[in-house]
Amino acid sequence: MVAAVHKLRNTSSVVVANTLSASFSFFGVPELIISDNGPQYAGQPFRDMCKKWGIEHTTSSPRYPRSNGMAERNVRTIKGIMKKCRETGQGTQVALLHYRATPLGSNIPSPAELLLGRQIRTTLPSHLSNPRNTDEVQENMRQRQVRMKEEHDRTAGPILAPLRVDQRVRVLDERKCWIPARVSRICEERNSYVVETPNRSSLRRNRSHLRELHKPSTSTSIQDEGIVSPVRRRVSFVEDETQSSADPNTPPTPHKNTHPSVTSTRSGRMIRKPQRYQDYT
């Protein structure tokens, strides 16, 4: 993937459409454009441009940049290059030239060579070799993509089951809270759904932001599941027989200690020292 960087005066739909049209006249017309859900891609000038060039336009799932990960990763790389050039005072175009001319691997040529079919000359000393076998390069790129997919799937988690229309789900909103919703439509994009919230608003979300709502089972009880409710421990104090039989109007008399290892408090509670302390006075 060759990264093309343009400086725009603004990000309106007209400016973006005109800039892409200039790139299409140089690199050729693509069959499909995948973008995020920015307003510049939803404007009428951008739609007219896609219709004029015969391009199909699809968008990634909102708030899920991983659905267009290759483009997002290239944007991150280009921003890092521009930041380093600003800090060191080097030219941005020269740095982008070296980035496009850097091979992707030991057996995969650079993005510029994959696009042009030949190596390009840079300001760095290098040896221009003959073009490589196209079939071999395609096989190496396919194996590279397989390895990258395996590395991603190790930590991506399990594959979630598809949802159906009118299914009750929970959706992750902007406040990072799970709210109830209902699936109203299944989008053409992969793993993308439109859900309706209780306040009648429609949200388009990826499957990763949706969770199924399971009906609670009425056949099982708390005791069947082995769940024991917490029981608060109660401490009861044994009253003295002489105190319990006395007149309730008379004030309680302090308990007389008959054992040296037993003491009583002002409320009449008996405190008995542990057995190991009886040898000490």
Overall pLDDT score: 81
Structural class: alpha+beta
CA gyration radius, whole angstroms:
36 Å
The CATH architecture classification of the domain at 168-212 is Roll
CATH class of the domain at 168-212: Mainly Beta
| SSE succession | HEHHEHHHHEEEEEHEE
Summarize the main sheet: 5 strands, antiparallel
Instruction: Determine the N-to-C terminus distance.
Output: 87 Å
State the CATH topology of the domain at 168-212: SH3 type barrels
How do the strands of the widest beta sheet line up side by side?
Answer: 6-5-4-3-7
Question: How many beta strands in the DSSP annotation?
Answer: 9
Q: Classify the beta-strand content into a percent band.
A: 5-15%
Please, how many helices?
Answer: 8
Q: What would the principal axes of the Cα set say about the shape?
A: extended
Q: Into which percent range does the helicity of residues fall?
A: 25-40%
Provide the low-confidence segments as ranges.
219-246
> What is the subunit organization of this protein?
single chain
Domain Integrase catalytic: 1-79
GO molecular function: nucleic acid binding
Pfam family, one: rve
Organism: Strongylocentrotus purpuratus (Purple sea urchin)
